[in-house]
Structures are given as C-alpha cells and as structure tokens.
Amino acid sequence: MAQAKYDQIVQVLRSQIEEGRYAFRDRLPSEHTLAAEFGCSRNTVRKALALLASRGYVQAVQGSGSQVIYQRRPTSTFLLGGIESLPEAAARNEVDLRTVMLSLEPTTVDQPLSERSGLKAGTPVLRVHRLRLLDGRPLILDTSWLLTSVVPVLTREVVETSIYSYLEDVLGVRVVSASRTVTVERATQEDRARLDLEDMGCVAVVSSATFDSSGLMFEYSCSRHAPAGFEFHGSALRLP
Amino acid sequence: MAQAKYDQIVQVLRSQIEEGRYAFRDRLPSEHTLAAEFGCSRNTVRKALALLASRGYVQAVQGSGSQVIYQRRPTSTFLLGGIESLPEAAARNEVDLRTVMLSLEPTTVDQPLSERSGLKAGTPVLRVHRLRLLDGRPLILDTSWLLTSVVPVLTREVVETSIYSYLEDVLGVRVVSASRTVTVERATQEDRARLDLEDMGCVAVVSSATFDSSGLMFEYSCSRHAPAGFEFHGSALRLP
DNA sequence: CAGTGGTCTAGACCACGGA
DNA sequence: CCGTGGTCTAGACCACTGA
Asked: A196 pLDDT exceeds 90?
C-alpha cells in the first residue's frame, strides 16, 4: 500500500489545522461526517483522529465533538513525543545545522555502556562522536553507538550530513520506536571546551535507545545539549 | 462501563511483562491467540497492544509477532509520555514525598503569563506555589495556575497532599491531555535558597498546559527541578 | 431527544516473515 | 507455504452532551 487511508486523512486535517482553517478550540466535523467526506468507515476516521490526538492536535470530547487544541509554538523546539532526527528538527525550525565529526571508530560494547544502554557487552559497534552547530553556535555534543551488524561502515560525509537518512534511504532500516531519558548533568571538561555554555555549568543529556522494524535495538545515543539551545516539547495523554 | 475490555487486557499483559513473565525480546502470543484467550475480537486485542506500544512495553513486528521491548528502569524516573501527578510518580518509585505550601492566592492572568501559557489575560485563577521534598531533599519548586471557574477554592491540606486527586476524586475533573515543554535555566535566587542544587547553577524547568475532558485548558504549571532529582523517561514512536 | 464520541464485533483482504 | 501483523468495512449498542 502506497499510503494508508487513515494517513491521508491525518495529513489533510493536520495541514488544515496548521494553516489555521480550524482555530484553537474549534470543533472538527463529526466522525460520521468525516467518514462520508473521505469515503471511508468511521473506524478509519477514528484511527486518524487518534493519531492527531497523540500528537497534540485535537482532543475528542464525548457527546460534543473533536476539538482542536493545537497552538503554534513560538520558538524552535525539538520533539519529545515523536522520533525526529536533528536535521529534520533543524529543517522544521528553519535553523541552519552544521555537523563536525570528531571521531568515528569501530569498537565493542564494554560493561559500563552495556549497563547504561542495554546492548550486550562485547557486541561490535561503530562509535560516532559529533559536534552539532545550530546557526553557527556549538550547542550539541553527541555520541552514538551503532550495531555493525546493521551499519557495517560509515563515511565522514554520511556522518556529517545525516546518519538517519542513510539508514532509512540507503540501508532500508525502518526506525520504529525509541526509549529516551532526559537528565541534567554537570558539564565535563569536553563540554566546556566545545559547547557554548554561557557560563552555565551544566548540560541537558538525552539518552536514547532506538529500535528498528524487526524489534532490534540497533542504536544507543547520548546527546549533550547546551542549555541555550535546549527546548523539548511534547504532548501527553492521561492513559488508563 | 466500569472498565473497558481493552483496558483489562492492558493491565494483565503489563503486569505480566513487569513481573518478567515475558522477558526483553520475548514474543507475546499472537493477536489471534490473545483474542481467543480473552474472549474478545482481534480489534480489541489490537487496541490493547497499541496502548502498550505507546508506553514502550511492546513493539509489533509484521509477519513475526509482538515483541516485548520493556526494560526495567534502574533508578527513579518521571514520565514523559504519560500524565502522572508527583504523588503517583513518588509512589511508583517508592520515594517519600513531602509537600510544603509556600503560597496560595487568587489572582488574574497577566500579560506575560498569558503569552507563556495560552491562558487569556484577565482570567481569574488560583496561584499555588509549592516546595516538594523527595526522601527529605528539597528538589522541586512548582507553581500552578488553576482556573477558579474549575477550582474555586483550595485548602492547605489539599495543596500539601494532592491537588490532582482532589480534582479527579472530589471535583470530578477528568484530566485528559497535557502539552509540555522542558528547558534548562539558570537558577534564580529563590531556586538557590530553597532547592538542593549541589553547586549546580541551573534547574530543569517543565512547563505544562493541562486540558480536561471538555477540552478546557484549566491549568498551567511550571516545575523547577534540581538536577539531582531530575530524570524524565519516555518512549516515542516514529509516526508517519 | 437527537447527535456525538467510546466500545466492540465478525468478518475481509493485504504485506510480510520465516520455515 | 502458512501464520503473522496492518488495514478496512459495516454494522451494533452504550454514555454523554446540549438544545
């Protein structure tokens, strides 16, 4: 299937909401009406609405209708609820991204990393260390460990443009889910040397384990953000 | 309905996963099998599995089965993907929580707050300022603004136990969704005075807008976390 | 009371993975 | 090839909202 029907509905409604055709607190047409308009069953419409709800665009109100709760974000933000590569986030926020590769080496997972990440000790991985500059400011230091069984080789060019598009477009890896932790840590010597910390002695650290469509955890990464460039945003649902 | 059928399935599978009956990378029984076991349709099983996937417990692998990707978190964490009150998070992590009310006053939304929060300027609200101690350590300073139309009065007792249970159990407010932003800021004088910052000059700030079941944004809150007690965890899905 | 979303069923066909 | 999950349909009944 080129594209699922519910996904087309998501895209139509999302762009209408983002363009302001439905304002904050407006109500969408009823599920029954949307089903008729899109020529599909109510269940398919409901699946689309659930996706929009999970991303913070709408909220269903029983007995009344689905309400738009989307509000334009004023400043640049990274996604908490979804998976987005840094180049994708930079493009969305219209920020210039430049990446400098600091090191790239084959190695194996040692004990401390194994405990932090969940990767099995001894597994062969590629370790990539990079500095990311947003609009010219050095704001993110990240390290990724990628399974060599999934990513046998990397070049400086791939590393400095986008590992994710190489994974998805060239290797055919489908990134499905990620498990993330956000903490705040004291800045290390390297942080102070490389990042624009503005006299703040700490960094925001985002650690992430990433899974592909076969359920394999193929990457563990650790991004150290200078506070100035760190703003994560997401929506959450009260789940049973 | 006391409890939806899919929700029962979620609870059974979740506790089985948490208890280790299914280990990391194990496969759950097929959807067809689960439907037979629980005496329901496959769609209902799928809804339960989708909920578990959104919380990072399982991941479906087409043609193969649903795989468990849950890994026990070693340290105490707060939820990023869900909505959880601090008392709930403290109980889940077996941490002792004590709350000190610093101030409680009726006021109205001013212009700067309105721009930050999305609440309309001039709206009557209750402003609550609190210090939270985890295992005796002062780690979180939070301020909430609650619509007086939803929460007309609050007492010190409610504020120092749980505003959320008062909202949900007494007032019948159903919390449905929240929109959140996480940033790292320089510590203010008050942060330094009240929080256990361990010489770190910054705090993690979680700002949150909360919506009830009628789609009304009834609360805006701002929690300033000492780095030592700050660890947020969540799972994310790569969405179309 | 009519219309809305919430839940659930019992089917169907498809794409994919592994034996 | 068969069994898996992915999508979709056309119904049904319920709980809730608002006029």
From this structure: yes
